[in-house]
Specification:
Layout (H helix, E strand, L loop, with lengths): L6 H6 L10 H18 L7 E8 L4 E2 L10 E2 L2 E8 L6 H7 L16 H8 E11 L5 E9 L3 E4 L10 E9 L1 H4 L6 H11 L1 H5 L6 E5 L4 E3 H8 E4 L3 E5 L2 E11 L8 E6 L2 E7 L11 E3 L3 E10 L1 H6 L24 H15 L1 H21 L8 H6 L10 H28 L9 H37 L11 H8 L4 E2 L22 E4 L19 E9 L9 E11 L13 H14 L18 E6 L4 H9 L3 E2 L5 E6 L4 E6 L1 H19 L4
Parallel strand pairs: 1-9, 14-17, 21-22, 22-25
Antiparallel strand pairs: 1-4, 2-3, 4-8, 5-6, 5-8, 6-7, 9-10, 11-13, 12-13, 13-17, 14-15, 16-17, 18-19, 19-20, 20-21, 23-24, 24-25
Helix pairs in contact: 2-4, 13-14, 14-18
Organism: Kribbella speibonae
GO molecular function: ATP binding
Protein name: ATP-binding protein
Length: about 675
């Protein structure tokens, strides 16, 4: 009993990913190439294929192309593929009407190409002519659809020689939206899919892609893409042979990354980016023979031909085989590993040059931009880091950071193992491993210190920019500078100990018991005040003096620090805005309250805790006048004033923004110089 096959069911069960929306067209073009090969074999004639793109009258935008000013493009409704090949001979027609035909199995055909036509298009019609046994031209035409399958429509006329015209109409919207729209983009996808035919001995037919406005010859793309062929290679992986066709592609915006093309049945099935998978192979390479080029490899094998899926979008091969595999088990990882090893041999000299350039790029970046990695750079290089010499700074920073994280995590595990042996009989290599671990920890600590110092350099650079006038001669608001020194409207519970940059003003301010930024005195637990006034920055420090007392009492000595920040070059007109007096008023209110520590413990009554008032403001005429009235003395560099207010028991220092930056830079100069940072 014969089995009946349902075309509706076969089309429904045929897979066509949206990302491969042009695959039905590509299959039609490959069929045309094979038809030309069958007719022109031995004749030396190249044959010709004309692909016509049909568009609707209604325009839509080409969102698939990059750049501004995208031209409106009419949507694609279908394609016509015309060739001068063998035509639909009776044998070809019989094969077409047989699902899963093995007629051209020796060419890698699976008999599913026409199913893909019905998957993406509403209607398919074919007109063809062939030579019969007597050399006469015979024509046929038919329609092909899911509903009515193959409908013959009599003999086709108008043919002077054999050939076929395949019309794919009613391009379904779900696929049309994901397909390239421009003729140039379509031509490039056709070329990349069928490139094997152009690279084989004898070349390919003359293929042209055109619409009403543009025409592209694939032969021109061959000249545009391919610089020259390199040596062909054959590798063997677990008894299976694979052929590698190695190409130098011309360097361009479109050809910018090295690729491995997995092929089957003379078609490209998978494109794989090789960037970083071979040390030194990232983008463009250089050699003395052809200058700058991009590497591409086309991999073919009977093994791949036998295992390509029917839709030709993937292989029925496992990515990797876990555990100990059998001798004849072969995974994509096994094949890829062998291919990458061979590529390393083929590109030996260009890769060595690229690795050296990448090494110089890393050293230059670490020296000038990221000194934190200098202490661990040797270990990072031992791990085999290779980078593209043209890599962006932020991408290089991420790579170095990932390596540093791995070094830190490995050191942690190593330390746990060493400490676990401390109480037992140590192994023979214990001392050696301990020394290596301590060396790594020392390098990591140096890296952390370098990162901290580098961050200080960056903060000072930012502050230097904030205090300068912009192109409109306007200065930054004080809140921008305030936020750089310490986040606004926060206190110690919200800001980590390293979350502020109070060291810019005074290194001692980095150590505080309580810190508040731009909050009312009433909201601060250490003040006990009902005032709603807001000092810019308030900090206290409790210095515990150890005493021998049975009750374990302590004698705290709190210090109060108030910081006021004014806008650069601000010219206050009224005495009521005197920042010196503002600071002294804050100190008085704090002393008058029932003061608690940040944890809520009472501080013994004392009305004279040391107070330090810092005013950050440019020395305008008005500001200089206020400093002189307050009996403050100018600093040696003339960029500030300082003094002690006896009645308020407070040290006062007024610093201009230039003086602030200069002072902080000088205090850190030795660290900056050690790391090679500009000071």
């Amino acid at each position: 009993m014969a089995l009946t096959t349902s075309l509706v069911g076969r089309v429904r069960n045929t897979s066509l990913p949206k990302s491969h929306a042009l695959l039905p067209l590509l299959e039609a073009i490959v069929n045309a190439i094979q038809a030309i090969d069958a007719r022109h074999e031995g004749s030396g004639a190249p044959g010709r294929i004309d692909v016509r793109v049909h568009r609707d009258a209604q325009a839509e935008f080409d969102f698939g192309q990059a750049g501004q000013g995208r031209a409106p493009m009419k949507p694609i409704v279908g394609f016509t593929v015309e060739d001068d090949g063998l035509g639909f001979t009776p044998r070809n027609m019989s094969s077409f009407e047989t699902l899963d035909s093995d007629y051209k199995s020796d060419l890698g055909c699976r008999g599913v190409g026409r199913l893909l036509w019905l998957k993406a298009f509403d209607r398919v019609s074919i007109r063809s002519a062939y030579e019969d046994q007597d050399g006469k031209i015979r024509g046929r035409q038919f329609r092909f659809s899911v509903e009515r399958e193959v409908e013959h429509d009599g003999d086709a006329d108008g043919f002077a020689r054999p050939g076929t015209v395949v019309s794919l109409a009613g391009f379904k919207k779900s696929f049309r939206q994901h397909a390239p729209k421009g003729v140039d983009a379509i031509a490039r996808e056709v070329f990349e899919h069928c490139i094997w035919y152009f690279l084989r001995p004898g070349g390919a037919p003359v293929v042209t892609i055109a619409d009403d406005d543009e025409s592209v010859s694939l032969a021109d793309l061959m000249d545009e893409f391919v610089d020259s062929a390199m040596s062909s290679s054959t590798i063997e992986v677990k008894g299976q042979k694979f052929d590698m066709l190695n190409l130098r592609l011309k360097s361009s915006a479109r050809n910018s990354v090295p690729r491995l093309h997995w092929c089957a049945a003379s078609r490209v099935v998978i494109n794989e980016n090789l960037s970083g998978k071979v040390p030194g192979l990232h983008g463009r390479l250089k050699d003395e023979e052809s200058g700058e080029f991009v590497y591409a490899c086309y991999l073919t094998s009977d093994f791949l031909d036998d295992r390509v899926r029917s839709d030709r979008t993937a292989f029925d091969i496992r990515d990797r085989i876990a555990g100990e595999s059998l001798v004849d088990d072969l995974s994509l990882d096994d094949i890829r590993e062998a291919v990458l090893e061979e590529i390393g041999k083929i590109l030996k000299d260009p890769l060595e040059s690229a690795r050296e350039q990448g090494k110089q790029r890393v050293h230059e970046f670490v020296s000038k931009r990221a000194p934190r990695y200098r202490p661990v750079l040797a270990k990072i290089e031992e791990r085999g880091i290779t980078v593209d010499p043209s890599v962006k700074d932020q991408d290089l920073e991420l790579q170095l950071h990932r390596h540093l994280q791995k070094i830190e995590s490995e050191a942690f595990v190593q330390g746990q193992e060493i400490f676990a042996e401390a109480d037992s009989e140590p192994a023979e290599d214990y001392a050696e491993r301990l020394a290596a671990y301590l060396s790594t920890v020392s390098e990591i600590n140096q890296s952390d210190l370098a990162a901290y110092v580098s961050r200080r350099r960056t903060v000072l650079d930012l502050l230097g920019r904030l205090i300068r006038a912009d192109k409109d001669r306007k200065y930054s608001r004080e809140d921008a500078i305030h936020s750089l020194i310490v986040p606004m409207r926060t206190d110690s519970n919200e800001v980590a100990s390293d979350g502020s940059n109070l060291w810019i003003i005074d290194e001692r301010l980095a150590f505080h018991d309580y810190l508040a930024s731009d909050k009312t005195l009433k909201s601060m637990p250490i003040t006990g005040s009902d005032s709603t006034r807001e000092p810019d920055i308030l900090a206290t420090r409790l210095i515990d003096s150890p005493v021998l007392a049975a009750e374990g009492q302590r004698l705290p000595l709190p210090s109060i620090v108030v910081v006021e920040i004014k806008r650069p070059m601000r010219k206050d007109a009224t005495e009521g805005k005197n920042p010196i007096q503002q600071c002294l008023d804050y100190v008085k209110r704090i002393r008058a309250g029932g003061v608690l520590t940040a944890t809520g413990r009472p501080i013994p009554p004392t009305h004279e805790p040391p107070a330090f008032c810092y005013i950050i403001a440019d020395l305008t005429d008005k500001m200089i006048e206020r400093c002189e009235i307050s009996n403050l003395r100018p600093t040696h560099d003339g960029l500030g004033y300082f003094g002690f207010n006896d009645s308020a028991k407070a040290y006062i220092e007024v610093m201009s923004f230039d003086g602030l930056v200069n002072s902080a830079t000088e205090r850190n100069r030795a660290f900056f110089d050690k790391l090679g940072l500009p000071s």
